[in-house]
């Protein structure tokens, strides 16, 4: 069977990767040591054994605790560079990378250390690996809109270092409309806008991400299959969904990969893409996501080509770059 080889070697864009979710336990322990931060686990193995989640919140609790080792600009550089080298091995040509500044600034880490460290890794990826990498600043939706507005202001000195904004963290109980004003402001600033919606939350959250936040892509969006009208709209507008199969499996959004609805969404004409979300926590980088979801759902080379093409078409790269990569 040559399908895994095709999946591994085809060029692709990754559009849904939280850089803090790429921090591998080994690097986390190394940073804990050099920054003198105490972790709740005594070894890499013990930490890995704690990666047993039953929903989004059970993951987020461990993910935010892990991020506490990140303190210096060099830490952000090292984490991001490790991801980019790994992405390069998976034939990622374009990466649009989420980061969660509030997770760090609340601990006293300067905004500049976060953004400059990540940005320098993206620049080095361009020159040393030929990867086109850009940053997307995410607001934490379990915090207030005022805190998001303050975070945006704090990041504006680095406005040219990120191409857009996103919305992540605990979904249910924090609908997109809570962030209407900050997203409107981001629109005025010419920033791209994306939002997590319909990961665990209802189709109504996808509607309001589109209509209130003016999201250009929906992160996850797998709950859209519960709403036929919404499916029609997403297909008709070709609004991309950044689907993350192994994440959905590990967070129990679907009981098994064979039950995942990605193939149904793709065949209904939605602009579906495959992504890794938090690869250090969910058991695989981009190619592993492709290989496992193809094996579980019986998708073929035609689906592979469509998913790869969708990833470039849904990216925020300029038209010339997108055309070259497709
Ligand atoms: N932050 C990191 N990964 C996330 C996910 N899958 N959903 C919401 N917030 C996140
Ligand atoms: Zn995500």
TrEMBL record:
Residues annotated as binding Zn(2+): 16, 18, 196, 277
Sequence positions that bind substrate: 278
Residues the record marks as active site: 199
Biological process annotations from GO: adenine catabolic process; hypoxanthine salvage; nucleotide metabolic process
Cofactor note: Binds 1 zinc ion per subunit.
Cofactor: Zn(2+)
Keywords: Hydrolase, Metal-binding, Nucleotide metabolism, Zinc
GO MF term (any one): zinc ion binding
GO cellular component: a single term: cytosol
InterPro entries listed in its UniProt record: A_deaminase_dom (IPR001365), ADE (IPR028892), Ado/ade_deaminase (IPR006330), Metal_Hydrolase (IPR032466)
Positions marked as site (Important for catalytic activity): 220
EC number, as in UniProt: 3.5.4.2
Domain Adenosine deaminase positions: 11-326
Catalytic reaction(s) noted: adenine + H2O + H(+) = hypoxanthine + NH4(+)
Family as reported in the entry's similarity comment: Belongs to the metallo-dependent hydrolases superfamily. Adenosine and AMP deaminases family. Adenine deaminase type 2 subfamily.
NCBIfam families reported in the protein's UniProt record: aden_deam, PRK09358.1-6
Function, in words: Catalyzes the hydrolytic deamination of adenine to hypoxanthine. Plays an important role in the purine salvage pathway and in nitrogen catabolism.
Protein name, as recorded: Adenine deaminase
Record organism: Ramlibacter aurantiacus
Lineage start: Bacteria, Pseudomonadati, Pseudomonadota, Betaproteobacteria, Burkholderiales
């Amino acid at each position: 069977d040559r399908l895994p080889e095709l999946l591994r070697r085809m060029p692709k864009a990754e559009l849904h990767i939280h850089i803090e979710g790429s921090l591998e336990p080994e690097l986390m322990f190394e940073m804990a040591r050099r920054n003198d931060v105490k972790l709740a686990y005594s070894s890499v193995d013990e930490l890995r054994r704690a990666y047993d989640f039953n929903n989004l919140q059970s993951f987020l609790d461990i993910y935010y605790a892990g991020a506490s080792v990140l303190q210096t600009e060099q830490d952000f550089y090292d984490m991001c560079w490790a991801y980019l080298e790994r992405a390069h091995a998976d034939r990622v040509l374009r990466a649009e990378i989420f980061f969660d500044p509030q997770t760090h600034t609340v601990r006293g880490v300067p905004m500049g250390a976060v953004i400059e460290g990540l940005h320098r890794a993206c620049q080095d990826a361009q020159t040393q690996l030929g990867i086109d990498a850009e940053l997307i600043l995410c607001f934490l939706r379990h915090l207030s809109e005022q805190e998001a507005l303050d975070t945006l202001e704090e990041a504006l000195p680095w406005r040219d270092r990120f191409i857009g904004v996103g919305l992540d963290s605990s979904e249910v109980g924090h609908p997109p409309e809570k962030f209407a004003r900050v997203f409107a402001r981001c629109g005025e600033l010419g920033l791209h806008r994306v939002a997590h919606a319909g990961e665990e939350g209802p189709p109504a959250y996808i509607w309001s991400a589109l209509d209130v936040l003016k999201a250009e892509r929906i992160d996850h969006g797998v709950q859209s299959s519960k709403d036929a009208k919404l499916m029609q709209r997403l297909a008709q507008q070709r609004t991309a969904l950044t689907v993350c199969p192994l994440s959905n499996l590990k967070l129990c959004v679907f009981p098994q990969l064979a039950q995942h609805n990605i193939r149904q969404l793709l065949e209904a004409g939605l602009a579906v893409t495959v992504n890794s979300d938090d690869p250090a926590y969910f058991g695989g980088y981009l190619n592993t996501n492709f290989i496992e979801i193809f094996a579980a759902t019986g998708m073929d080379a035609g689906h592979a080509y469509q998913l790869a093409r969708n990833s470039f078409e849904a990216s925020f790269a300029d038209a010339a770059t997108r055309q070259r990569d497709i």
